[in-house]
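Task card 7
Instruction: Convert sequence to structure tokens.
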Amino acid sequence: MIVSSPPVSIVIPTYQGERFLEETLASVRAQTYPALEIIISDDGSTDRTLEIVKDFQQQTALDCQVFTHEHLGMVDNWNCAVSRSRGKYIKFLLQDDLLDANCVSEMVELAESDREIGLVFSRRDLLLSEEAKTNDTCLAIVRQIENLHSGWSRLALVQSGRSLLSDPRFLEGCINKIGEPSTVLIRKEVFDTVGEFDPDLCQHVDIDMWCRIMLNYKVGFIDRTLSFFRVHLSQQTLQNQQSDRISTDLQLFLRKMMVDPCYSELPTCLTSAIYVKLKEERDDLLARNTTHQQRIQELEITESELQAERSKHLHLIEKISTELQKAQDVITGMESSKFWKIRTTWKQTKRVLRLPDND
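Output:
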């Protein structure tokens, strides 16, 4: 049980979030933890996002600060939101996600039990929007990211972050086995030690931060669902998946772990595993590139064959047109001859006299 209630900043970065934001803010209002400030950092929304936020401010007694700015992009908006917070702990909440009513209370209680804990995470469940339930890409994402915590070999209530980085299963399956920002509580001073979120990354920006924290702090885990991550057609993960940025971003992140000074104390076993992983990724990329080139060559051959067939057909059409013109000329000549006129007159006379037409 927490003796006192250290201040917690619930940080909500927003951008064009009108669809789910009211439900998200309702989960904030339902929190049982008493010492909250709400930091909303809006990245230049042009929809009803700010109207919804204003309504929330008017309806709640919570300290709610709203900061607006021109469009910076997702990662810079995250960093902007963190810089505005004043709490001892930061509880991220993305604009589409939800928190269990006891989320902040339980996470803070665990974090306060050991001052060396830099990050607390928990189980989280997935919420699928109606259209996502029938979208193949969304369903594939769900299969990849459900039950992330089960990807670790071992999870304890409190453990060294380095022990998680040394897990032989770290690079297996989904590399982010902690989860999205809505799943974690972070001690604010952590950012003074490890720095901001990296704007050079897109899909792996959160696991990059979690790894830097794990190198320097202990990690707490609550074996209970305390947040809900929503899957829908407009989210960044789906856009990255469709543009194939995830694979490129993973390689960028792994290379960063190999060469960036912030990862200089990475466990040797993980460094070796990353080297192997990068080699596999490179070989796979080369193989895919080779296949791509072969496909291009096949298409070029097919195009050449089609051009040849088209030329052949055009030549045949021209030949038939010439023969038809010759036939037309013959018919025209026949129609103008005396024989043709006499023959035509005779056929008409036989029809009038109802004589048999034997010729």
